[in-house]
Design brief:
283 residues, alpha/beta, two-stranded parallel ribbon
């Protein structure tokens, strides 16, 4: 190691502490650095620009987890598992993924327009005003965005909305709201999130800030999910990991999806999701 990039110099074991971009660039050139090791780069979105700049300069960026050696990856470093992070501005295949997102979401929005209108009208008549539910979720690189859904539950207050894990068994829910959740029709508005590039069709499911902070501290690899665009469906979901299921298993499936990503895999996941919607089980 030739230096540590941190705002807290304690614990650097005598290594130079690099606090500015100029110091990092100087150390990079003087020492011929080819590899950069990052601990939880997904937790703090502000690290993204620096890591991308290092990747564009020719460095290979690796992520390690200092808290746990249990990542299921092929690379090991000093007893810890590590994974390569694709920090370039345009990861190979990203254009194809975006084209798939725009074409499919745009087509579905046009085709499902009448259905969305019917759902909105019935929901307004049965549950009153406030048809669209907006909630802050965490997306790629830890950046927040506003997720859209049909409102199927009215929380008591903002604290409940931000911290209550599941409302699947909520007794106050009307019959139509239960129908929307059971058929996943309440998720259709997220096609607009995909069309406007907040999300992708396929990727790790986005979660609320409260749970992202909580799960990132509890489950190894959870924060690493945010190195790719979040999605409406994903590898975890087609394996039954939705609703009140294991967070650790979800993180494992999500990271496996990112590590082995391909456009063909996205298409297969979309087809399996469509097949699963024919036998809805609720969320």
């Amino acid at each position: 190691p030739v230096g540590v990039v941190t705002e807290q110099p304690d614990g650097s074991d005598g290594l130079p502490v690099l606090t500015t971009g100029e110091e990092v660039e100087r150390a990079l050139i003087q020492n011929g650095v080819r590899d950069v090791l990052a601990v939880h780069p997904s937790v703090r979105a502000e690290q993204g620009p620096l890591l991308r700049a290092l990747a564009e300069s020719g460095c290979t960026v690796w992520e390690i987890d200092a808290d746990s050696p249990s990542f299921e990856t092929r690379h090991q470093l000093a007893g810890f598992s590590c994974r390569r992070l694709h920090m370039g501005s345009r990861r190979r295949g990203s254009v194809g993924k975006r084209l798939l997102d725009v074409s499919v979401s745009g087509t579905l929005l046009l085709l499902a327009g009448p259905l969305l209108l019917v759902c909105a009208v019935v929901l307004r008549l049965t549950d009153g005003p406030g048809v669209v539910f907006r909630q802050e979720r965490i997306g790629k690189d830890g950046k927040p965005f506003t997720l859209l859904k049909f409102r199927t539950h009215r929380p008591v207050d903002e604290h409940e909305a931000a911290t209550r894990w599941s409302v699947a068994n909520e007794r106050r829910m009307s019959w139509f709201c239960r129908f929307l959740r059971r058929t996943s029709l309440d998720e259709l508005l997220q096609l607009w999130n995909v069309f406007r590039c907040d999300m992708s069709l396929v990727g790790p499911r986005p979660e609320r800030p409260y749970f992202v902070a909580k799960f990132s501290q509890t489950y190894p690899g959870y924060a690493a999910r945010h190195r790719m665009q979040t999605g409406i469906t994903g590898l975890a979901q087609i394996h039954g990991l939705r609703g009140d299921t294991s967070i650790e298993d979800r993180a494992r499936f999500d990271n496996a999806y990112i590590d082995n990503w391909s456009l063909w895999q996205d298409i297969c996941i979309l087809l399996r999701t469509a097949a699963a919607l024919m036998r809805p089980t609720g969320s």
